[in-house]
Fold:
Amino acid sequence: MKKLTSVILVLLMVLSLVPFGASAADSPEIRNVIFMIGDGMGTNHLEWAKAETGEKLAMDEMPVKGFRVTDSLTGLTDSAAGGTALACGLLAFNSNVGTMSVSLDGHAFVVLNYVNLCEASQKAGKKTGVVTSDSNTGATPATFSAHAARRSYADIISAQQLECGLDLLWTRADGIITESTATKAGWTYIDKLSEIYDLPANSKSLAQFSGKIEYDDGDENGAPLSVLTSLAISQLDGSDNGFFLMVEGAHIDKYSHANEKDDMVKSLIEFDKAVEEAVKFAKMDENTMVIVTADHETGGIVYDSGAKEWKFTVGDHTAADVPLRVYGDEGMLKDGETLKNVAVARYVAKATGLSGIPSFSLNIFVVIDFFKALGDLISAKLKGE
Ligand SMILES: [Zn+2]
Structure:
């Protein structure tokens, strides 16, 4: 029954996309996009961080403030399906990265590869970058740089990222990409923040930090997200066709899963500083759009009016709508409006004149894998296993 539902969902997706493909805007005024994702960041995360620190947030100063729903094809979303909707403007099954895939008795196979915003931007001659406090194979960065049937396929994701055409990929180290594999694939490899300052213009850089990115803990192997954001903008700025940069604060989610308030707040404040850097650049540049949102809410944060305090109520994701803040292009949403999950990527494509969002291609290789899986299943049945 589950399989039948999956197949019907695939068919519905395909039918709903005929005809598909966003038409390019006539004359886009927006050249650069800085797309900022606070993983797991619900509206109440912002309120709790403000109550805890007494600080104002740069996110609150952005001119347009609305919300986004965070559904997936299989209900309550995870970061893979959430990231896919943000990166590709199409809904996906949970735990699938940048694809539309279904599985047959544990044999995962890709049916469709969704085009993501980095790919569409590269096709338009833009520079592209991905910066995250997570490792490169984390679900959110992966949806902007790879296609895999499962978010756990770290080797497949890493191999694709080495060849994905990004100009920079700055993340936490996960041990899969090494200095030698990165260098062989043509990247300038970095593992210390100080090395980024010495990067020559137009270099393709892959950074793998062994220390924290989510906030500054004084470790020289770390690299605070706000500093990386401002350096990434400097690296990408100045090309003729503009740039697309995705920045993720992954640890708002991770610390919310663990219900660790102090670290969640520190990560959120660091993410907000990164937003401040992005908006500062956009104000100066005047052709840059900054979008801040989340893939889903984590932790079910509520205000307990009896105890007069904020608190986590769960250790997992919730279906709560998430904040959506925009600077630089007020056409995306009206103040207080709630957009569909897939609307942001589609709007970004339209505003910057990208074609191919939303669209997809058939993944032949893994369809072959499907027949292999089917063959295995039949021979197992014939053998009476
Ligand atoms: Zn999560």
